[in-house]
Amino acid sequence: MAFPNNTRTIVLVGAGVAVLAGVGAAMFFGAGKPNDPNAKPPAAEGGLKIDLAEQPTLEPTRELRCYVDGQFVGMATLTDCARRNGVATNTLDVGLDATGALAAAPTASFAPPPVAPVEVEVPKPATTTAPRQTVEAPTPVSGQCLRHVGNEWRQVGTGLSQADCVKALYSGTCVRTPGEAQYGRWNDVTLRLVPRRVEASSDNANFRTYAEQNRQCQFPRL
User: Fold this and answer.
1) Nearest-angstrom CA–CA distance, 201 and 9
2) 94-109, pLDDT tens digit by residue?
3) Could you read off the pLDDT of 50-61 as tens digits, one per residue?
4) What is the pTM of this model?
5) If DSSP codes are grouped into helix, strand and coil, which group holds residue 104?
6) Is 102 exposed, middle or buried (0-12, 13-18, 19+ CB in 10 A)?
7) CA distance 192 to 182
8) How far apart are CA 165 and CA 159, in angstroms?
9) Residue of 115, 111, 212 lying closest to 170 (CA atoms)
10) DSSP labels, 126-189
11) How many beta carbons lie within 10 A of that of residue 91, not counting itself?
12) What are phi and psi of 142, to 5 degrees?
């Protein structure tokens, strides 16, 4: 049976409208309401991720586990914990302790500097001439690199620059627990790895930051 031309046109237009209406309804109901209070935000699907390698920002009134002389002394704010340790607030390392809780402790308080290795002095030959004026020798560009393991110093390499010694000692190694440290030596300079950085000291007592460590436990600036 053949439809008239005008009837066939009406049927085709009607079918097209029905298809478009179905697609629109599917998109509307499938997408969900944008203001639905029960809808989960995108971040909720994957969970909140926190990089604990970075020192967290603390509110002045927030309390955390405080360590004094390597011992847990209770909960305290960062300022109060520094006061209990008799140090400045910025000398505390903040991170997770062995319990997994946020904690603070003075830098290297759990691992104080070991005794520097004994260097054998070679006796100088006797001389009858008047001693010449001594000139301070420049810092050597290369030298001996040592690691402190247990109660002894072990050689890591010789002829290394200070930067190469630091990388040989600590590249790929991080210290994350507040108060912990790992020690090394480059010539007469004591090196220590603490959370997020390596520090250096020429007197084995007063340390300054030598290199910052990134999240991958590397030293991109060395």
Assistant:
1) 91
2) 999 989 999 999 999 9
3) 343 444 567 878
4) 0.65
5) strand
6) middle
7) 5
8) 9
9) 212
10) P--SPPPPP-PPPPPSSEEEEEEETTEEEEEEEEE-HHHHHHHHHTT----STT--EEEEETTE
11) 11
12) -145, 160
